[in-house]
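Complex 553.
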Amino acid sequence: MNLSTTEADVIVVGAGLAGLVATAELVDAGKRVLLVDQEPAASLGGQAWWSFGGLFLIDSPEQRRMGVKDSLELATQDWFASAGFDRDDDAWPRQWASAYLDFAAGEKRAWLHQKGVRFFPVVGWAERGGYTALEHGNSVPRFHITWGTGPSLIEPFVTRVREGMQAGLVTTLHRRRVDELILDDGAVVGVRGSILSPSSADRGQASSREVIGDFELRASAVIVASGGIGGNHDLVRAHWPKRLGTAPTHLLSGVPAHVDGRMLGIAEQAGARLINADRMWHYTEGITNWDPVWAAHGIRILPGPSSLWLDATGKRLPVPLFPGFDTLGTLEYLQKTGYEHSWFVLTQKIIEKEFALSGSEQNPDLTGKDLPLLAKRITPGAPGPVEAFKEKGVDFVVADSLPELLAGMQKLSPDVKLDFAQIAKEIVGRDRELDNDFSKDAQINAIRQARSYRGDKLIRVASPHKLLDPKAGPLIAVKLHILTRKSLGGIETDLSARALGSDGQPVPGLYAAGEASGFGGGGMHGYRSLEGTFLGGCLFSGRTAGRAVATAL
Ligand SMILES: Cc1cc2nc3c(=O)[nH]c(=O)nc-3n(C[C@H](O)[C@H](O)[C@H](O)COP(=O)(O)OP(=O)(O)OC[C@H]3O[C@@H](n4cnc5c(N)ncnc54)[C@H](O)[C@@H]3O)c2cc1C
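Predicted structure with flavin-adenine dinucleotide bound:
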């Protein structure tokens, strides 16, 4: 094949979930696709392969079986309360949000099910909010874990793309980095870029950027599905919004280096409008990976609600900033304390039941569909990967007494003086609130209330106990860092995934999907997410883009 002038119906930039879904749709429609990615074939699937596979579904059979009553109306109330849309630029994001909610309450599950995707029966409760009915958070559990996590979610789309390759419809071009969109009379008609040197980098590892040639491809349409900016800390800091305090100096990366945001600027040069760049979704429960795959590799703890959350000096975070309640509310609060790290203080009993680590590789039972290993989640002892972090992670302190714990915490944070007396007071005061079955402590009440949901009681929320009860020990402290993950803004698109220009009109030939398009519209989440909505946003916007291009050609 002559790579200098290859032609096809469509070029898809990015072989992550959004690009794979779009390509699979185009194969279904019999279109010829060039699927271009800067990474080697080993990284096919992008971030989604690494993901936990958590999907937001509304009123699913899994929810109903767990006794959860959900509805499109309730989910819409939650979504719009969390999104807080408040800009003129939110016109398309609002429409995408409504369309996505219809998808999540409608055909999303059946469409995935028919492709062989299955779900773990216990639905998780992410972003619990803790405010009033019309404020941020999920009123009910909606986080459905894909059986087999991220790798099983991408599998049907990878299979369809491979079938397309066999049928001569799809050509995948790895190590091709797009540097420019080719314009002809205002229309996008192809891409130009650099051929990168072959790389034996394993999945997720940074691959070399050595250029060994250039390429040019032409097609009737280009779909940009190049992901977000989370791997590019300079860009994250450049777009850091004032409302979240000062931009952090120390960041862990929750995504591989290829999530570099470069393609967004390239799309902008071709006339696409970027909106909501200041909206991002980063976590405050990041821990340093003791076994890193990429630089500054951090893992997010998906926490249950029981750990005591302290700022860097040892002061307890205010209501309702409990673990798993309000991601950005906590980030905003912490950034305004003047310190970037914070602490969880917990017990062995809590870590065993409440610590889940986000990422396919951190959940070998769910990822490997290994039932005997999975059964261990309800027996004593923390899951293997959590135990490994406890033993080998640099952010963990394990101690048999409070003074020993505090000394260990201070050692991990030599530059910030911990107020030992304050921490002891917080812990003893909190423990006193457990002498009755009722309490004034909002976190303890939240823990008790969570356990009235069967799924939480079963596998997610430890029975309330005193942190200083030796039977629940040893005591554990975890130093938490800010971890970059998702961009909520991106290329503005209409409901057909057509990229829009500054005049509000579609840029002919240009489409966008996945994180590059703010998961649809240029930011369908608004300011905040209800979780499990990113993979779903890639499925929906990738499908929309593929179908829209197929219809337009
Ligand atoms: C550890 C982890 C856990 C997660 N867990 C969840 C979860 O449980 N639920 C959820 O909803 N979301 C989760 N997410 C988020 C979700 O996985 C991502 O938002 C989503 O997969 C993004 O997909 P994408 O296709 O838009 O982009 P990506 O996966 O980033 O793919 C983009 C592709 O484009 C390529 N590319 C970029 N620029 C160029 C260029 N110039 N030329 C050629 N190629 C280019 C990249 O190499 C990459 O392969 C998680 C993410 C991670 C990392």
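The CA atoms of residues 194 and 241 lie 33 Å apart.
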